[in-house]
C-alpha cells in the first residue's frame, strides 16, 4: 500500500518509543524511509529498541527523558534538532494507565497518569512545536488518544480525563497551528496487545476473552494495522487531514453504545426468527 520512500527526508520523534505501539510505529516509520528519534524514561530499554529499529544506528536516535518534566523534554527535543536539524513529525505516544476503583485512587495516582498522558503530550507538543514554528517548514503532530476519550470509562478515570484533554488539544491546535503549516491529528485505538497494556489492563484470561468477544470483529488489533494508519496520517499523503481523530478498534466503542447491539452476540438466525415473530404478531 505504501511506497518505501513515503517518509524519506522526515525526522520523526516518538515519545514512549522504547516499547509497545511506540516501538512498532518507530520501526514502521524507518521502514518507510524516516529517521526516528525515540524517547522514554529507561535508557536501557531505549538502547535495546534502537538496536531493533535500525541495527546500523544511522537512522535512529535514542534520547532518554521523562515527559512529565518539561526541562527534560526541552533538552531531549534540542538534542534531536541538533543532530538532525529539526523535527518534521511528533508522535505523542507515551502513556501510563492502570485499572483502579476511583475511590481507591490517591491524588498522586491521578497525578502520575495525567502527568504522563496530558502534561507529557503538552510538554512535547510545546517544545517540538516551538522548534517547528521557528524553522518555518510546517510539520505534523499525531496524538494517541483512546476510544473512551469520548465516552469515559469506569476504572480508568485518570486516563479517560487525560485522553479527553489530549483530544481537545489535538482539535484546538489543528486550528491554531495551521497558520504555521502544522497539522494535528489523533488516533483512537481500541485494544492492541502490548506487554505494558496487557499487564496494566487485562487482569485475567477470562476478562481478556470477554474483551475480545465485545469487539464486533471478534479479535484484537494488529500492530501493523495501527502503524499503517499512523504512517498515512503523518505523511504527505494526507496533507488536508487536520484536526481528525481516527478510531481503529474493530467497531468496539460503537458496539458498547447501541441499545440493541447485544443481539449480535446471539446466533443470527435466532435473532431473525424472533424479529419475524414480532412482525407477524403485528399483522
Ligand atoms: N492502583 C492504584 N494506584 C496505583 C496503581 C494501581 N494499580 N499503580 C500506581 N498507583 C499509584 C501509586 O500508589 C502512587 O500513588 P501514592 O504515591 O499516593 O501511593 C502513584 O500511583 C504513582 O505510582 P508510582 O509507582 O510512583 O508510579 P509512576 O510514577 O511510575 O507512575 C504509571 C505510574 C502508571 C504512570 C507508570 O507506571 C507508567 O508510566 N507506566 C507506563 C506503562 C503503562 O502504564 N503502560 C500501559 C499503557 S496502556
Automatic annotation (TrEMBL):
<dbReference type="GO" id="GO:0006635">
    <property type="term" value="P:fatty acid beta-oxidation"/>
</dbReference>
<dbReference type="InterPro" id="IPR002347">
    <property type="entry name" value="SDR_fam"/>
</dbReference>
<dbReference type="Pfam" id="PF13561">
    <property type="entry name" value="adh_short_C2"/>
</dbReference>
<protein>
    <submittedName>
        <fullName>2,4-dienoyl-CoA reductase, mitochondrial</fullName>
        <ecNumber>1.3.1.34</ecNumber>
    </submittedName>
</protein>
<dbReference type="GO" id="GO:0008670">
    <property type="term" value="F:2,4-dienoyl-CoA reductase (NADPH) activity"/>
</dbReference>
<comment type="similarity">
    <text>Belongs to the short-chain dehydrogenases/reductases (SDR) family.</text>
</comment>
<dbReference type="InterPro" id="IPR036291">
    <property type="entry name" value="NAD(P)-bd_dom_sf"/>
</dbReference>
<keyword id="KW-0560">Oxidoreductase</keyword>
Amino acid at each position: 500500500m505504501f511506497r518505501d520512500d513515503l517518509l524519506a527526508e522526515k525526522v520523526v520523534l516518538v515519545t514512549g518509543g522504547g516499547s509497545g505501539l511506540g516501538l512498532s510505529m518507530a520501526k514502521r516509520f524507518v521502514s518507510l524511509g524516516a529517521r526516528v528519534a525515540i524517547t522514554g524514561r529507561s535508557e536501557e530499554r531505549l538502547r535495546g529498541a534502537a538496536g531493533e529499529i535500525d541495527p546500523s544506528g544511522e537512522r535512529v536516535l535514542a534520547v532518554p527523558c521523562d515527559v512529565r518534566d518539561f526541562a527534560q523534554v526541552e533538552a531531549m527535543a534540542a538534542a534531536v534538532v541538533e543532530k538532525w536539524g529539526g523535527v518534521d513529525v511528533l508522535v505523542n505516544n507515551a502513556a501510563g494507565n492502570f485499572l483502579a476503583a476511583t475511590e481507591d485512587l490517591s491524588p498522586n495516582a491521578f497525578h502520575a497518569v495525567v502527568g504522563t498522558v496530558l502534561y507529557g503530550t503538552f510538554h512535547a507538543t510545546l517544545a517540538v512545536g516551538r522548534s517547528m514554528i521557528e524553522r518555518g517548514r510546517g510539520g505534523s503532530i499525531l496524538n494517541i488518544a483512546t476510544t473512551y476519550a469520548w465516552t469515559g470509562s469506569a476504572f480508568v478515570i485518570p486516563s479517560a480525563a487525560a485522553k479527553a484533554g489530549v483530544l481537545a488539544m489535538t482539535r484546538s491546535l489543528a486550528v491554531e497551528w495551521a497558520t504555521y503549516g502544522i497539522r494535528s491529528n489523533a488516533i483512537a485505538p481500541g485494544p492492541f496487545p502490548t506487554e505494558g497494556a496487557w499487564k496494566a489492563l487485562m487482569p485475567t484470561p477470562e476478562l481478556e476473552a470477554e474483551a475480545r468477544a465485545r469487539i464486533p470483529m471478534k479479535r484484537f488489533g494488529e500492530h501493523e494495522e495501527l502503524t499503517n494508519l499512523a504512517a498515512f496520517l503523518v505523511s504527505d499523503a494526507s496533507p488536508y487531514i487536520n484536526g481528525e481523530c481516527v478510531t481503529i478498534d474493530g467497531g468496539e466503542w460503537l458496539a458498547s453504545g447501541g441499545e440493541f447491539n447485544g443481539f449480535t452476540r446471539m446466533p443470527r438466525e435466532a435473532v431473525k426468527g424472533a424479529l419475524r415473530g414480532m412482525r407477524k404478531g403485528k399483522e
